[in-house]
Amino acid sequence: MNDTNSASANLQTPNPKDPRSNNAAKGFGKEFGLAFVTVFLAELGDKTQLSTLLMTAESQSPWIIFLGAAAALVTTSLCGVLIGQWLARRVSESTLNTVTGASLLFIAVLLIWDTVHL
Predict the structure, then answer these.
(1) Is the same domain home to 65 and 118?
(2) In b/e form, how buried is each residue of 103-117, taking b as 16+ CB within 10 angstroms?
(3) How many domains is the chain built from?
(4) 104: domain range?
(5) Inter-residue contact 100 to 79 (CB < 8 Å)
(6) pTM, to two decimals
(7) One-character DSSP codes across the chain
(8) Count of other CB atoms within 10 angstroms of residue 94
(9) Per residue in 31-79, pLDDT tens?
């Protein structure tokens, strides 16, 4: 009888008041929020935003500029997600972190070198 009760307990619908039933929604909200804030702050004031600003100032169709810029950002983000997913299947997380850090350090050194040797 205990086996039947435990089996039927597993088949019950999730209780919305049970905090464990909201884990997927919380995970989505946390990841979505982190991605939004990170990309928003990274893109704020960059050359893409300045280019969009200049195109809008010269254009008589600001909404078309907005749609084009939004489509471009969505497309580049999709490329990043797809390439990131592909890399995650083939390369360990620690290797990705090391390569990314080394790449950013290399770019920083090049920028400093360029600034010093004007």
Answers:
(1) yes
(2) eeeeeeeeeeeeeee
(3) 2
(4) 61-118
(5) no
(6) 0.60
(7) -HHHHHHHHHTSPPPTTSGGGGHHHHHHHHHHHHHHHHHHHHHTTSHHHHHHHHHHHH-S-HHHHHHHHHHHHHHHHHHHHHHHHHHHHHS-HHHHHHHHHHHHHHHHHHHHHHHHT-
(8) 8
(9) 999 999 998 898 888 888 899 999 999 999 999 999 999 999 999 999 9
pLDDT score for 6: 45
Q: Is the pLDDT of residue 4 over 70?
A: no
> Is 40 buried (19+), middle (13-18) or exposed (0-12) by CB count in 10 A?
exposed
Q: Do 66 and 118 share a domain, yes or no? A: yes
Residues in the chain: 118
Instruction: Answer yes or no: do 66 and 94 share one domain.
Output: yes
pLDDT band at 22 (very low <50, low <70, confident <90, very high): low
Q: Is residue 7 included in any domain, yes or no?
A: no
